[in-house]
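Loading example: each entry is read as two labelled lines plus one structure line.
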Amino acid sequence: MNPIIKNKILGIGLLIFFLISSQSALADNNSIFSNFRSGLLNIIRMIDYWVGGFLNYKQIQEENNVLIFQNRALKSLLIEYRDLKDENELLREALQLKKTKDINFILANIIGRSPLNFSQTFVIDKGEEDGIKVGQAVIWGGKTLVGEVIEVSKNFSTVKALTDTEFKVAVFVGDNKIEGLFKGNGFLDSYVDLIPLKEQVQEKDQVYTSGLDKKFIRGLYIGEVKSVEKLQDKIFLDIKVEPALDWTKIYQVLVIK
Amino acid sequence: MKKPIKNFLKFFLFGLFIGFLGLAQISFINDFPVLGAKINLVLIVILANIFNSSLFLIIWGAIIGGLIYDFTSLFNFSYLFSFLILIILFRTIGRRYLVEKHLFLNFFFGVSGTLLFNFFYVLINYLFFHQNFFDYFLSWRHLIEIFLNGLGTFLLGLIIEIPLVIKANLKY
């Protein structure tokens, strides 16, 4: 066969195969693929644990010692907390105050993760049928913000992690509740923008959602201030943030309904 | 060794190697970004072997690596097709204009290959899946990734060439 015709046939065949395969993959009844993907991610998790454990053995050991100590301290504080909780409920009852609104969650497994640099997104195994909607906050580890739902299909959804370059959310910084705008920066440090130079921001100050942008509820923890700098010719502080959670290391999340 | 067995082993080992690199890319490579950019391991191996005598071996590697990337990400086969388009383009156009083999060509193919691969990926996602990755494509982080992949391809090419050079010298 003429090589030009052969190449044309190959090209057209490739295009048709691409269109059919990509459309069938995006169709919603793909539970077999979904199972396969979660299986693949389990293998990746195993590799990640082994290699991570091997490379950071000393650091993990040190962290473990600190965590054991912290755990003991927290257990002792828990007793005090229970007493305070009982007292709080008693006082609320006496004052007839309404309880704070309960938040409903949907537990989801992460079944896919962006492998390259294009975006910082991951795929979860819950979709429209489970009540997921675009714009919902995704959290883990208490009320720590992980990202935001950006695309929803019938059975799965895509989540933009808070380190994505396009992620933005209104935040409070520190106990003084200084208002700012948190922005993701890919694999570089995330930062808080729009905080004037006169404001007093310290390292280790906590960063959490303010709810002022009506995007997420108030009080979702993001992380700690890593460094604060006053750059010349800039009208805002240069505040770098260390996110509390690394989205590449988690395999389950909660979506706030 | 009989040729079919040798060929099978070649395909099997290459597939295994690419598979391992694909899994490494998704798992622990996340921990080692350089100035905000990650290296693309599967692309590097494919580009370093782009003019390998067996086209099917390269396509086999692209299928394995592309599918691993696709299954763990947006699941729309855009990585796989970006790899295949890149291979076809380099094999058809590259061979026509390549007159002399030079070690630094690996770096050139690493750089141009990354640029083209990312361009195809961004274009496919933009045209078919309404995903806009042009922000990254036009960012300076992309330049770093291009350089990293170029360097990776050059080094891998160097490693592949060493045994060939030794072999050629031993003949004389």
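Chain B has one domain: 3-171.
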